[in-house]
Amino acid sequence: MSLFEPEPRRPRDPGSPPDVTQPLYPPPGTYPSGPSGTYPSGPSGTYPPDDQYPGRPAQPVQPGRRPPYPDERQPLEPHPLQYPPQRYTPPQIPERRLFQPPSQPSAPGSRLPERLPDPFERRLAERQPDPAGATATRESTTRIALIYPELLGTYGDGGNAIVLTQRLRWRGLSAEVVSVPAGEPVPAGCDIYLLGGGEDEPQTLAAEGLRRNKAIERAVAGGAVVLAVCAGYQVVGESFPAGGQIHDGMGLVGVETRRSFDPPDAPLPPRVVGDIVVEPDPSLGLPTVLGYENHGGRTRPLPGAGGFPFGRVLLGLGNGVPEGTDGRIDGRVIGTYLHGPVLAQNPALADLMLTWVHGSLPRLPGPPEVEALRAARIRALQVG
Question: Model-level pTM greater than 0.85?
């Protein structure tokens, strides 16, 4: 028997498994015949007649080729949006600047539909005090400086500026957010300065620029308020680690940050990521503060440092010191490890900062969604 000749087929026992070595398809010439001829397995075979395609005109079929499918006989019309390709043109919708009040309903015949009433805004207006009855202690606009958002804005801490602005406007007070890009001089005439979180290299660049500028130090001496979160908290301290080195901070708060305060031969502690709950210092008059932390540093006060811890940690790590505290408050400078943004989850802290600028302010509850979220988080974390 030749090597390439097929092996004779043996009869299969009905109880034995099927012979998988046999070809899946029969060899040419063994297709069954149909009423209109056989399939093209030989020179005499023909394709099925064209009348099997109802509604289509009969077309000759060349020997050895399959008949065209219906889609091939009558090709589809090209879609006008795809052929030929056209350059995308964005819709001409008027831009709305950030922190501006809602626009008025559009006039009839304009391209934009009229703004529908928001039931949440109606409920909120019923709960908030009348802006006309709010007594402003300052006639000028409150200026809120967002410092180096491209360097110290990794975790959405820029949202703290939005919270402060909106809570001022709900009270009938004007506010302005001054975004200070890296490399630009920091204005010394703002009322509130916000510093957020960031990675090691951006944090180092931010600290270098702020040390050269000295504008925030002059503003704090004049009574300005500072909220520094995570990397910003380390920057306003005396020193912090980054890139395997110790860098100088601004010295607004008497704290130092290291990867660890353990002996040099001890392993470094792991990075802390997760929920954090803080019971603020009683002198602040604040409810429980919620947030999340994401940092690898440990922060402790220097000998003889002024101020006091922001609060006692109920869940999480915070400063990572044996006292179990988070943050530091010295005068009107607040340092904390709480992201969130922290003011969005804790509007009472935002109001405390605003009272440091404006004095007594009308009480402003809510929004109710924030209160519901806080209650749900406290139940879930079991810290109530």
Answer: no
Cis peptide before 49 (omega within 30 of 0): no
Q: Return the higher-pLDDT residue of 190 and 115.
A: 190
Q: Residue 351 belongs to what H/E stretch?
A: helix 347-358
CA 260 → CA 25, 99, 330, 371, 383, distances in Å? 72, 41, 23, 37, 28
Helix (H) or strand (E) holding 350: helix 347-358
- Strands 175-180 and 142-147 come out as parallel
Here the tokens at position 52 are 């099997």
Q: Domain containing 249: what range?
A: 138-381
Question: What is the predicted pLDDT for the residue at 70?
Answer: 54
Residue 34 lies in a domain: no
Residue 223 belongs to a domain:
yes
Task: Please tell me the least confidently modeled range out of 5-19, 73-87, 307-321.
Answer: 73-87
Contact 39, 26 (CB under 8 A): no
| 193 in Cβ contact with 147 (< 8 Å) | yes
DSSP collapsed to 3 states, 217-281:
HHHHHCCCEEEEECHHHHHCCCEEEECCEEEECCCCCCEEEECCCCCCCCCCCCCEEEEEEEEEC
Query: Three-class SS of residue 358?
Result: helix
CATH number at residue 185: 3.40.50.880
Whether 273 maps to a domain, the answer reads yes
- Has residue 97 been placed in a domain? no
The amino acid at 203: Q
Is residue 331 a contact partner of residue 307, using CB atoms and an 8 Å limit? yes
Amino acid at 216: I
Q: Number of folded domains in the chain?
A: 1
3-state SS class at 372: helix
Question: Do residues 364 and 351 lie in contact, with contact meaning Cβ atoms separated by under 8 Å?
Answer: yes
In this prediction, residue 162 carries a pLDDT of 96
Q: In what order do the strands lie in the sheet with 289-295?
A: 289-295, 272-280, 311-315, 325-326
Q: Is 227 within 8 Å of 145 (Cβ atoms)?
A: no
Indicate if the pLDDT at residue 21 is higher than 70: no
Whose tokens are 């397995």? That residue is 41
Dmax over CA atoms of the chain, in Å, equals 109
pLDDT at 366: 75
Q: Name which of 150, 293, 317 is nearest 229 in CA terms.
A: 293
